[in-house]
Write a structure and sequence with these properties.
By secondary structure, this protein is mainly α. Among the domains are: 9-119, Serine Threonine Protein Phosphatase 5, Tetratricopeptide repeat (Alpha Horseshoe); 207-279, Herpes Virus-1. It has helices spanning 9-27, 31-44, 49-61, 65-78, 83-95, 99-116, 121-170, 175-197, 232-241, 262-275, and strands at 221-223, 229-231, 259-260. The chain has a three-stranded antiparallel β-sheet with strand order 2-1-3. It comes from Cuscuta australis. This is E3 ubiquitin-protein ligase CHIP. It holds the Pfam family TPR_8.
């Protein structure tokens, strides 16, 4: 059965024309008109995923996150390999603070996007959004953990103080010894909770994991014959617009001499996995 089900050839042709009309409206930023056109196409052929994902994109432009989520989920039901639908669904989920599920959708979109067209601008865009989403997820969980840790610390301090006051009231032992023991216990308690909070402190990315030009974390690292690692897109732009030379060493450099730095790429991923993306992104 065709994606349009039992629709006639005329209906299929009409639906496709409506899609093209919707695309034309979208390019002119007439998102309401585009939504109407895609909706009519969906009415004629409800099982064509691109109609749903195109309409979802209009909802994204209008910040209509509820309808965006609904259309993306329908598009994914019809085509689970639609990386654009997974990407937009991830954005919608992040808006409702469903960070964990949002990250999963963006990761799925990135995998599918790389498989479809690794050099597409969409892949870089998805990577950027995924990086932000990972940080938002970490920040949300970190804030929750910090609040719980603070409450637990207050409870422990209160219990320790009550125990100390009880000992003082009973006048057992020497007062100075009791105060000194209390101070050491309080110090130890603070040390334990300070250590527990370390994992929720944002980290600076090590220099060797950053591009020498942008100083931002590397995403697609390439290495020059001189052993300097750059972000691929950044060094290619330098070679095209500035000159055919290595910005750090000054030696002659051509695009054909660049090679993927797989070791650094793995190191970047290991850093992100280990630290839960606990660093700030611009």
């Amino acid at each position: 059965m065709s994606p349009c089900g039992a629709a006639t050839a005329a209906a299929i042709k009409q639906a496709e024309q409506l899609r093209q009309d919707g695309n034309s409206y979208f390019q002119k930023s007439r998102f309401g008109a585009a939504i109407d056109a895609y909706t009519e196409a969906i009415t004629l052929c409800p099982n064509v995923p691109v109609y749903w994902s195109n309409r979802a994109l209009c909802h994204l432009k209008r910040n209509d996150w509820t309808r965006l989520e609904e259309d993306c989920r329908r598009a994914i039901q019809l085509d689970c390999n639609s990386f654009k639908a997974h990407y937009m669904l991830g954005l919608a989920l992040l808006r409702k603070q469903a960070y964990s599920e949002g990250v999963k959708q963006l990761e799925k979109a990135l995998d599918l996007g790389r498989g479809a067209n690794p050099k597409s601008y969409m892949v870089e865009e998805i990577w950027q959004e995924l990086a932000k989403a990972k940080y938002l997820e970490w920040e949300y969980e970190s804030t929750k953990r910090s609040s719980e840790l603070h409450k637990l610390k207050e409870s422990c301090e209160m219990a320790l103080k009550e125990k100390h006051l009880l000992g003082l009231s009973q006048m057992e032992g020497f007062l100075d010894e009791k105060n000194e023991a209390f101070s050491k216990q309080l110090e130890a308690l603070n040390s334990v909770f300070a250590k527990a909070a370390e994992d929720d402190t944002p980290l600076d990315v090590p220099d060797y994991l950053c591009c020498k030009i942008t100083l931002d974390i590397l995403r697609d690292p390439v290495i020059t014959p001189s052993g300097v690692t750059y972000e691929r897109a950044v060094i290619l732009e330098h070679l095209e617009k500035v000159g055919k030379f290595d910005p750090v060493t000054g030696k002659a450099l051509y695009a054909s001499q660049l090679a993927p730095n797989l070791a650094i790429k793995e190191a970047v991923q290991a850093f992100l996995d280990k630290h839960g993306w606990a660093y700030r992104l611009d």
